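Hey, I was hoping to borrow your eyes for a little while. A protein chain has come my way and I'm curious about its shape. Take your time with it, there's no hurry, and the full record follows here:
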Amino acid sequence: MSELFEAIMVISFGISWPLSIVKSYTSRTTKGKSVVFLLFILFGYVCGLVSKLIAGKLTYVFFFSILNCVMVAIDLGLYARNKRLDQKKAKAE
């Protein structure tokens, strides 16, 4: 039963990340984003993955967690792009 709730949690986060990625891509700015927050989220997912590896419990939750890590990494990449765009805009002004 606990794995069911864990799966629901990971899937819920998984639904949220594409929305965040689209917002990051279209906004073209870092305003309203926290790189520290994204790094802590990524760290949390990595710790969860390590936990599953140590316990030998490679269930579907593990694979959704990998997918979520990839999406957070994409959002971090967009943050870096948007930071450069913010700096270019600041120089132009």
